[in-house]
Write a structure and sequence with these properties.
- With about 775 residues, this protein is an alpha/beta fold.
- It is built from 27 helices and 22 strands.
- Strand 11 (about 300-305), helix 11 (about 315-330) and strand 12 (about 335) form a beta-alpha-beta unit.
- Helix 11 packs across helix 13 and helix 17 (about 455-470) packs antiparallel against helix 18 (about 475-495).
- The chain is globular.
- The termini are far apart.
- It binds glutamine and zinc ion.
- Zinc ion (ZN) binds near residues 620, 660, 662 and 746.
């Protein structure tokens, strides 16, 4: 029999029950008991679905009140000492680690590999100790077992756990990170984390013994770090670690995902584990490295169902791969999604508003469990046993393949017609610069903001009422225009040089554009956990992308009509739109990025025609698109930068293109950033004290830069002197003629009083610096 299982299931709940329960608890409006009860109900539901789909195991340990890495920090008793918690943490302490308390900032947060899920980063010190407290995991295990389920606990393996942590030394400090837009500066490791393995491993041994004593026969142990570029010492450690762990008791299924581990095939083959899981969606070609002389006593778990995307699986194609494997491996062939289903929404059946055709092309987590079951039956009982299911899958795929909703000949023709000039501005930056200077007449160190102004309660209420139908078009339009007038008046009063309209009309920087572009669809409940209780609802790019009509031109034109100062048009870039959506899987991502780029290009050109002289194309997700393996970086950077340039290059030389990226890890991709050829780039720098500008200086970044002079993530109002100090630091590295002054990021999460105070200080700091510079000149 072919065994089927899942590496993990979304915990948030089909209706985001966990989010609501956790947030109610945080507000002090519910008890620990009622929160625990929600968790129990959700787990039971998810296991029940796994059972109903015929999975041979249910997965235990994929639940978390906040984050699975934080669960492991609690499990191994290694919460940072600075919290003073001791080796066991209760639920309130657990939440304090995630969210901070009055004395301690929270653990840092960063992206889980190349997903949009964020985990809490373990803090390791040279003297960190580990002490097992398996009580939570054992409770969940007991819950599953008493529900009559065969339970497969899942753990993050010791090497991945260490690798994901941060080595801290004396005097090191961490900042609180805000995952909605910014990646965090990870400081260089203070010591070699691998030294901690000797202390950590006994806790894993202890845990496996405990699980065995509770009747567990199989443990899934995740080592996705294996798909990264690991140093040799870490790779060697795999032998030692798994020789020790495999001897303990439960069988171990070592699981890898998000990439290929073919380069480690020899090593993995000889590890004494019971089996190995491979991600064949992300890395299909790695299979050959393993099937050839796969040990006769080992399981191979094949991840054929995409755990990262929402498309219905091509079951026929899977069976072509699986049938010979089944003959070779017999019962040792297992099937699973490529990775945990954490990254997809829960249940497609809830989507009442998606049309049936589009729905027939999709599969969310629950549907993916059923696909596994169909594959299993096809392999075990023959294809005729699941004839109908295969037929339905085939029909949906064929329809999708040929649908006019997906294939737009005009887009194809336009793609075909792209020439090598289309992604180049007419002239070089050196030639453009004087033309823009003459047109814009800006002072030295021009001041601007990143685009959004506070999304006030009033704005949110108006939008909600508009969506409900309680506010008509005209009333909503008037309300938004009033917000624009307000934002423009404040900026003029503050004395800013390049103004923005404030983005009041936008709910979200990707959704806003997706809703107006052809080829995009939106779900009602397609939520995916981003971090903690925060969920996102990524758009689905299902077809060729085009822009039926202008998206932002009227708002921007209106804003420009209110002022004689330059009004900056504000767009989201092609790479960010791609990165924050579910992307079609029937063509390369680069091709979809190019289509989006052409649509944005149309908007850029229309803004220019409407008289807008400065246009910003935001690319906050440019860096997070980087592949996990460095060898794959150049190809990505090449097409991503090209997509950006394609969106930006339809304008005349005297139109100024800005871009914005909100993070501070640039040094390893500076040439690619320069290759965007934006006239101005605004970036986050205040939290890293302008340090990253050293890289820009050394590299001699050729165009203009606006290094953020204050951290918009904090309600704190920065003092004038702090900002003059940062500006002086910046001016020491970047020539003043190419420096801009702006905050780190958009201001939508802040309130007006703090924004006005902070920007007023920013303008004062700029005035002081201008005087200083004119004296030295
Ligand atoms: N223009 C956007 C804003 O100001 C940029 C946001 C971002 O970079 N994440 O909100
Ligand atoms: Zn930003």
């Amino acid at each position: 029999m072919t065994m089927i299982h899942t590496l993990g299931f979304p915990r948030i709940g089909a209706q985001r029950e966990l989010k609501h329960a956790v947030e109610t608890y945080w507000r002090g409006e519910s008890s620990t008991d009622s929160l625990q009860q929600t968790a129990i109900t959700l787990r039971n539901q998810h296991w029940q679905w796994q059972r109903e789909a015929g999975l041979d195991y249910v997965t235990v340990g994929d639940f978390a009140f906040y984050d699975q890495v934080l669960n492991h920090i609690a499990l191994f008793g290694c919460a940072p000492k600075r919290f003073g918690f001791g080796s066991t943490v209760n639920l309130d302490q657990y939440f304090q680690l995630a969210r901070g308390n009055t004395d301690q900032f929270a653990l840092e947060m960063t992206k889980w590999f190349d997903t949009n899920y964020h985990y809490l980063v373990p803090e390791f010190h040279a003297n960190t100790t580990f002490e097992l407290d398996a009580s939570w995991l054992l409770d969940e295990l007991t819950q599953a077992q008493s529900g009559g389920h065969r339970a497969k606990p899942v753990l993050i393996g010791p090497l991945t756990f260490l690798w994901l942590g941060k080595a801290k030394g004396h005097g090191d400090h961490a900042n609180h990170q805000h995952a909605d837009c910014c990646d965090h500066v990870l400081q260089a490791d203070a010591f070699d984390k691998l030294q901690l393995l000797d202390r950590l491993l006994p806790a894993y041994v202890n845990l496996l013994e405990t699980l065995a004593a509770q009747g567990v026969d199989l443990v899934q142990i995740d080592e996705p770090a294996l798909v990264l570029d690991l140093p040799p010492a870490w790779l060697d450690a795999y032998d030692a670690v798994y020789n020790t762990l495999a001897a303990v008791g439960p069988k171990l299924l070592l699981s890898t995902y998000f990439g290929s581990v073919a380069n480690h095939a020899d090593r993995l083959r000889r590890l004494p584990v019971a089996g190995l899981h491979l991600d064949l969606v992300r890395a299909p070609t790695q299979l050959a490295a393993f099937t050839e002389s796969w040990p006769v006593d080992k399981i191979l778990s094949i991840g054929v169902i995409d755990g990262r995307n929402i498309w219905r699986t091509d079951l026929d194609r899977c069976l072509e791969i699986l049938a010979p494997l089944r003959r070779q491996l017999g019962d040792r062939l297992w099937l699973a999604p490529s990775c945990s289903l954490l990254h997809v929404p829960v249940d497609l059946a809830q989507e009442a508003k998606l049309d049936t055709e589009l729905k027939s092309w999709l599969a969310f987590a629950k549907q993916k469990l059923n696909e596994l079951s169909v594959l299993k039956r096809a392999l075990d009982l023959g294809r005729t046993a699941v004839h109908q299911e295969l037929q339905a899958s085939r029909a949906a795929l064929d329809a999708r393949d040929t649908s006019p909703r997906i294939h737009n000949p005009a887009v194809a023709a336009r793609m075909e017609a792209i020439t090598s000039h289309d992604d180049r501005r007419q002239s070089t930056y050196e030639a453009r610069h004087p033309l823009q200077r003459d047109r814009l007449k800006l002072p030295l160190l021009p001041t601007t903001t990143i685009g959004s102004f506070p999304q006030t309660d009033g704005i949110r209420r108006a939008r909600a009422a508009f969506k409900r139908g309680d506010l008509n078009d005209t009333a909503y339009h008037d309300a938004m225009q009033a917000e624009i007038r307000h934002a423009v008046a404040r900026q003029e009063a503050l004395g800013l040089d390049v103004l923005v309209h404030g983005e009041a009309e936008r709910n979200d920087m990707v959704e806003y554009f997706g809703e107006q572009l052809a080829g995009f669809a939106f779900t009602q409940l397609g939520w995916v956990q981003s971090y903690g209780s925060r969920c996102v609802k990524p758009p689905i790019i299902f077809g060729d992308v085009s822009r039926p009509q202008p998206m932002t031109v009227e708002w921007t034109r209106y804003a420009q009509s209110l002022t004689t100062r330059p009004m900056k048009g504000m767009l989201t870039g092609p790479v960010t739109i791609l990165q924050w959506s579910f992307v079609r899987d029937d063509q390369p991502r680069s091709q979809t990025a190019t289509q989006i780029a052409l649509a944005i290009r149309d908007e850029v050109v229309d803004l220019e025609t409407a008289g807008i002289a400065v246009i910003q194309i935001d690319e906050p997700a440019f860096r997070e698109g980087l592949p996990l393996k460095r060898t794959d970086w150049p190809a990505y950077l090449d097409w991503a930068a090209r997509a950006f340039r394609l969106s930006a290059s339809g304008v005349r030389d005297n139109t100024q293109i800005h871009t914005h990226m909100c993070y501070s890890e640039f040094n390893d991709i500076l040439p690619a950033i320069a290759a965007l050829d934006a006239d101005v780039i605004t970036i986050e720098t205040s939290r890293s004290d302008m340090e990253l500008l050293d890289g820009f200086g050394e590299f001699a970044y050729p165009n203009e830069i606006g290094p953020g002079v204050y951290d918009i993530h904090s309600p704190r109002i920065p003092k004038v002197e702090e900002m003059t100090r940062l500006l002086r630091k910046a001016a020491a590295v970047i020539p003043a003629e190419r420096l801009w002054v702006n905050p780190d990021c958009g201001l939508k999460t802040r309130g007006w009083p703090e924004v006005e105070a902070a920007l007023s200080n920013m303008v004062s700091a700029t005035t002081m610096l201008r005087e200083e510079l004119s004296v030295t000149a």
